[in-house]
Amino acid sequence: MTPTDPTSGSVPRVRRGVSLREANSFGVECIAEQYVEVRDERELLDALAQARRDSVPVTLLGGGTNVLLLDRIDGRVIRIRSRGVSFEPDGDAVLVRAAGGENWHGLVRACLDRGVSGLENLALIPGTVGAAPIQNIGAYGAELASLVVGVSVIDTYYMRPTTLDARACAFRYRDSIFKSDEPGRYAVTGLVLRLGDRGLETGYPDVGAELRRMEGDATPQRIAEAVIRIRRRKLPDPRKTGNAGSTFKNPSLSARELDRLRGFLDIDAFDAGDYFKVPAARLVEQAGWKGYRRDDVGVWPAHALVLVNYGRATGEQILTLAQRIADDVARKFDIELDLEPQVLGHD
Ligand SMILES: Cc1cc2nc3c(=O)[nH]c(=O)nc-3n(C[C@H](O)[C@H](O)[C@H](O)COP(=O)(O)OP(=O)(O)OC[C@H]3O[C@@H](n4cnc5c(N)ncnc54)[C@H](O)[C@@H]3O)c2cc1C
Fold it and tell me: So what's the pLDDT on residue 10?
């Protein structure tokens, strides 16, 4: 049996009509027509190949923290549970290899415990290592893209494992080849990151202020601690209140569009070179939605970008609220807001 022979080997048990309520951080009900968990690349390859043979559509799921699930998902949901992290010195740096099913924050902790810097600003982002490159996770002045050496994938076009370098991943702000250019083509099985050879990132205003409050020198551990404190203050814990973090991406504006907006709204903007990024949270708040609640759907009172499920909300209700907010922002500011989580399934 060779790694590229997808027709042999055993496929883990496929279950039918499985509830995904516990498998998504919004905590909404969704029934997967078929559901299977895979523990390594071999099982993933087999599960993908079998689905192809049976003409069954596939949906990949990691921690379910960046998806908005509707009532049903047709076909096969494959959840990647592969484990393993290794460290290899590489000159002044360390190459870190992590399997796709590893917990992202667990990886951040493992690096900090070994004294390997680079991931501290990305502490406490929920979800898996395999999903991290999908939207090029980022927070508090750091982005995954700058740390990636390679992304191990199964290319479902050829049904074989391969590795994409950072350039081939076409990383952009909350975007990549995996999310926009060729959605569904690649199943991510692992990441190789180059860490430990850069200066610390303390320029993000909230992080700087928190570090000053904590006193003492900035170290990777302290930066992670500062980020964790900020996140715990601002964001609801999905184990208590269903959410998927930011519901909208920050919009990119041309200099002209920014001038027009600033004609009637005092708003910060981040100069990204060719364009300016403005905080979507400010637009949503200004439009009056922060703290809004109707039945079990609402906007988190401490963060206008976070839509929440207070109990038994459905994915459809959350999506409807997101659309109402986006329509209102478009009407008031003439700016389009794009959803950040992936909407999966149907009513
Ligand atoms: C409280 C909270 C805070 C958050 N803060 C941030 C933040 O600061 N920055 C940030 O960038 N994100 C943030 N997020 C969003 C989310 O945590 C990340 O996007 C995370 O990477 C999603 O991981 P996941 O395993 O849960 O992916 P899932 O939600 O399971 O999947 C997301 C998408 O990736 C696809 N996918 C999943 N695994 C794979 C794979 N192995 N191969 C191919 N495709 C795959 C899925 O099909 C889906 O389209 C936050 C979410 C929450 C709930």
Answer: 61
Q: Topology of domain 242-344, per CATH? A: 3.90.78
Distance 125 CA to ligand 1 centre (A): 9
DSSP, collapsed to helix, strand or coil, labels residue 203 as coil
Compute the average pLDDT of residues 87-96: 97
Residue 8 pLDDT: 46
Q: Examine the residue annotation and report whether 180 is marked as an active-site residue of this protein.
A: no
From the CA of 259, how far away is ligand 1's center (Å)? 33
The CATH class of the 85-195 domain is alpha beta
| pLDDT tens by residue, 102-159 | 999 999 999 999 999 999 999 999 999 999 999 999 999 999 999 999 999 999 999 9
Coil, strand, or helix at residue 69? strand
Q: Which atom of ligand 1 is nearest to the CA of 237?
A: 1
Q: How far is the CA of 52 from the centre of ligand 1 (A)?
A: 25
Question: Has residue 273 got a pLDDT over 90?
Answer: no
Please give the average per-residue pLDDT across 284-301, as a whole number.
98
Looking at 82, 246, 252, 282, which residue is catalytic? 246
How many angstroms separate the CA atoms of 74 and 280, rounded? 33
> Domain ranges in the chain?
15-80, 85-195, 242-344
What tokens does 321 get? 């609220």
Ligand 1 pocket check: which of 37, 125, 146 to mutate, most ligand atoms within 8 Å of Cβ? Answer: 125
Q: What whole-number distance in Å separates Cα of residue 178 and Cα of residue 148?
A: 14
CB 83 within 8 A of CB 110: no
Selecting among 76, 79, 81, 174, the annotated active-site residue is 174
Kindly report the CATH class assigned to 15-80. Answer: alpha beta
Q: pLDDT value at position 121?
A: 98
Task: Return the pLDDT at 11.
Answer: 62
> How many whole angstroms separate alpha carbon 323 and alpha carbon 280?
14
